[in-house]
Design goal:
Elements: H1 2-8, E1 16-23, H2 25-28, H3 31-39, H4 45-55, E2 59-60, E3 66-67, H5 80-87, H6 89-97, H7 106-114, E4 119-125, E5 128-134, H8 137-155, E6 158-159, E7 165-168, E8 173-175, E9 178-184, E10 191-197, H9 199-215, H10 222-240, H11 246-267, H12 273-280
Antiparallel strand pairs: 1-5, 1-6, 1-7, 2-3, 4-5, 8-9, 9-10
């Protein structure tokens, strides 16, 4: 997220974004092509045989029938995330080697911009990726089609036509649960890039809170409900803490309070608000038992620190 924000701000202005979505990434990777890339790093035939055995292990379907796996990396296999990353290095290498990519010198990039040619950089996390482009929308369309051809010809992977979108930073992008968009700062005419939890992510955690309040029966103690809610909400807030998330946390805090109080009212239908506050809130309004309900609104936010390419890789160049 720090990389996307850094590239989109002045003076870099990589403002057009191809939001990539690979259709059934884990299911359609070509085994022959994938093993070819693995052999480029590993010479030990015993390790290669073990990797191939993981790929060919097969899966049990929902109908309890065994299915062979002639393509893809079976989800649930401990090697699947690593092997899918290995497969998608074809995309990294293609972008890195292409003129206008991250391997291009600053002088050449400036010359390309003067000639109306685009510069671009790939930001990828596993099979989720964004191609940041300094250029125009036609450049983004051309690069999207080019990437689709590279993935299909090398790894047998296809881009989802419905989910692979081309958007401008002013319209906003949803990536890894975040919303990143350029807005005008209130009270000024200046525009800044903001990152905050996407609406879809907020709806997901609210649905989880609602589900937990229904799963925990009212005949159980409040501590059990608080324990399960804290586990879910605290982890979600920790993930979205490095952003402009204070307003979202405040909204979630109110929703959490509302659902817990509804649960307490169902548990004690004949008790008054004053009696419930005395019993469960110590006379206040925030629920607590032996442990206190986590309040997202009290969690301070931070910012991702952009580190660029200064993080050294432990692996030698291939």
């Amino acid at each position: 997220m720090a990389e996307i924000r850094y590239l989109a701000t002045n003076p870099r202005r990589y403002e057009w974004i191809v939001e990539g979505d690979i259709k059934a990434c884990f299911d359609e990777i070509d085994h022959t092509a994938l093993m070819g890339r693995v052999r480029g790093r590993i010479a030990d035939k015993r390790v290669l045989d073990l990797v191939k055995a993981f790929l060919k292990a097969g899966i049990f379907g929902e109908d309890r029938q065994f299915q062979e796996t002639n393509a893809g990396t079976p989800q649930g296999s401990i090697l699947s995330p690593l092997l899918s990353n290995v497969a998608l290095t074809v995309l990294d290498e293609h972008i890195a080697q292409r003129p206008g990519g991250p391997g291009t010198s600053p002088g050449v990039k400036a010359g390309r911009l003067r000639r109306g040619l685009p510069n671009f950089k790939l930001v990828r996390y596993a099979d989720d990726w964004c191609l940041m482009i300094r250029g125009g929308q036609p450049d983004a369309v051309t690069l999207r089609d080019e990437i689709a051809g590279v993935l299909l010809s090398t790894m047998g992977l296809r881009l989802s036509p419905d989910k692979t979108l081309i958007t401008h930073i002013d319209e906003g992008v949803d990536f890894l649960g975040w919303r990143i968009q350029r807005h005008r700062k209130k009270g000024t005419n200046r525009h800044f890039i903001y990152t905050y939890p996407a609406k879809k992510s907020l709806k997901a955690v609210m649905a989880k809170v609602k589900k937990l309040c229904r799963q925990v029966e009212v005949n159980q103690p409040l501590d059990e409900l608080i324990r399960r809610l804290n586990q879910a909400v605290r982890g979600w807030c920790a993930y979205f803490r490095p952003g402009v998330s204070s307003a979202t946390f405040a909204y979630l805090s109110h929703y959490l309070w509302q659902r817990v109080w509804r649960w307490l009212r169902s548990k004690h239908r004949r008790s008054t608000w004053k009696e419930l506050r005395r019993q469960y809130c110590g006379g206040g309004w925030w629920p607590r038992g032996q442990r206190e309900l986590f309040d997202p609104e009290t969690l301070g936010t931070t910012r991702y620190r952009y580190r660029g390419s200064i993080i050294p890789s432990p692996w030698p160049a291939a």
